[in-house]
Amino acid sequence: MNPCDPQMAGKLLAATPVAVELGSIFAAAGHQLYLVGGSVRDFLLGRLSSDLDFTTDARPERVLELVHGWAETTWDTGIAFGTVGVAKRGVQLEITTFRSDVYDGESRNPQVSYGETLEQDLVRRDFAINAMAVSLPGGAFTDLFGGREQLEAAIIDTPGTPEQSFGDDPLRMLRAARFASQLGFTPAPRVVAAMTAMSGELARITVERIQAEFNKLILGDNPRLGLALLTDSGLAQVMLPELPALRLERDEHHQHKDVYEHSLQVLERAISFETGGPDLVLRLAALLHDIGKPPTRRYEEAGGVSFHHHEVVGAKMVRNRLRALKYPKVLTEQVRTLTFLHLRFHGYGSGAWTDSAVRRYVTDAGPLLDRLHLLVRADCTTRNRRREVMLQNSYDELEQRIALIAQAEDLARVRPDLDGNAIMELLGVGPGPIVGQAWAFLKELRLEMGPLDRDAAQAHLYRWAVENKILTPDTAS
């Protein structure tokens, strides 16, 4: 919908009957109520969700009184900040009292202060596109800072000066990059200038809040735009220094692929392969898979450049960075594993892997195999069209081999041909380290040779036990 549509208010009210009902309740009690912020912005962009934001002159306690008996559910987890949550007919509504907060300039937590007017509430908001309001139930439209025009121009700007806005809450700088990713918008020059000058202020923000905003950026439709803004402004140097570090210096004697640009290309290609919606694990792995290249770069005597074992170094760096950003352990290990494995395919050549190597590839990837397929394909970027086709065909062949072996063997559940109980019985030992060592040996044997019958597996186990002085040749029978 065109943001300048004169019928906008009427269409918005028709699209939000629950909001109109709520507005009537407030109006009957002598209070003001406005649909505000992202809800108005998203409606103008044709993407209104079932989560609606409101602002009102009523205090939180009064809001609870007004919705009592009308709301199906209420929650007050945000009441300290003036917010009451309400659910009605599948719609989530957050109602916040007019705010006129004061910031101390040291943290992002304001001293909550209730305002008396809508104007006071709107001017404190992060961006003009989030500072529009529609009165309920009447539908009067308020746009004090040019939000509609900025939506039409796809621009991100602040209601007041960006220096004041970012000084109040430095997280807003990261939100600017997030909106660039989600909406495809461009920050105003003064916003970019303030972000660049004030990037160090992001250190005032808790890691948890930074991670939450970064996730929204990565999962947006245009993450390249947001990531480029983070890098160019210096914000990435504060929160994700491995990203700008990918901008390796190059000279005429030591040419190599632009690692920073390549990483963004891999991310875009991985996104194009997604079929079930945005995948945070895949996108993080695509972005970070080569962060081990800067510390492993070596200039060769012949004039080339090498990055030996960058996948090993990179896997450790990924783990450290994601831990520092307080990502969940499971997600961190998934991204680390994909980073560690992303280069292995390039040793495949033209079908040179043994069945054993294929089994190991599948087993080491485990439940990440499908993501690994996508990451490796996304990583096959080259200006040489013939080489790209060759790489993709080679990976097609590898996937076909995986499928054929999987038909004959349950690759998803590769286990030794003898279980723990059989090992203890055959070796005459009880539970302990020996059983684990024997189990690990038999699993490696299974990967190397494929399924074995019991007699063959037992013979290999006895031979291993003799070599490791667990059994004597006389007892190994």
From TrEMBL:
<dbReference type="InterPro" id="IPR002646">
    <property type="entry name" value="PolA_pol_head_dom"/>
</dbReference>
<dbReference type="InterPro" id="IPR050264">
    <property type="entry name" value="Bact_CCA-adding_enz_type3_sf"/>
</dbReference>
<dbReference type="InterPro" id="IPR003607">
    <property type="entry name" value="HD/PDEase_dom"/>
</dbReference>
<dbReference type="Pfam" id="PF01966">
    <property type="entry name" value="HD"/>
</dbReference>
<dbReference type="InterPro" id="IPR006674">
    <property type="entry name" value="HD_domain"/>
</dbReference>
<dbReference type="GO" id="GO:0000166">
    <property type="term" value="F:nucleotide binding"/>
</dbReference>
<dbReference type="InterPro" id="IPR014065">
    <property type="entry name" value="tRNA_adenylyltransferase"/>
</dbReference>
<dbReference type="InterPro" id="IPR043519">
    <property type="entry name" value="NT_sf"/>
</dbReference>
<dbReference type="GO" id="GO:0004810">
    <property type="term" value="F:CCA tRNA nucleotidyltransferase activity"/>
</dbReference>
<feature type="domain" description="HD/PDEase">
    <location>
        <begin position="255"/>
        <end position="423"/>
    </location>
</feature>
<dbReference type="Pfam" id="PF01743">
    <property type="entry name" value="PolyA_pol"/>
</dbReference>
<dbReference type="InterPro" id="IPR006675">
    <property type="entry name" value="HDIG_dom"/>
</dbReference>
<dbReference type="GO" id="GO:0008033">
    <property type="term" value="P:tRNA processing"/>
</dbReference>
<keyword id="KW-0548">Nucleotidyltransferase</keyword>
<dbReference type="GO" id="GO:0046872">
    <property type="term" value="F:metal ion binding"/>
</dbReference>
<dbReference type="GO" id="GO:0000049">
    <property type="term" value="F:tRNA binding"/>
</dbReference>
<keyword id="KW-0479">Metal-binding</keyword>
<protein>
    <submittedName>
        <fullName>CCA tRNA nucleotidyltransferase</fullName>
        <ecNumber>2.7.7.72</ecNumber>
    </submittedName>
</protein>
<keyword id="KW-0547">Nucleotide-binding</keyword>
<keyword id="KW-0460">Magnesium</keyword>
<dbReference type="Pfam" id="PF12627">
    <property type="entry name" value="PolyA_pol_RNAbd"/>
</dbReference>
<keyword id="KW-0819">tRNA processing</keyword>
<keyword id="KW-0808">Transferase</keyword>
<dbReference type="InterPro" id="IPR032828">
    <property type="entry name" value="PolyA_RNA-bd"/>
</dbReference>
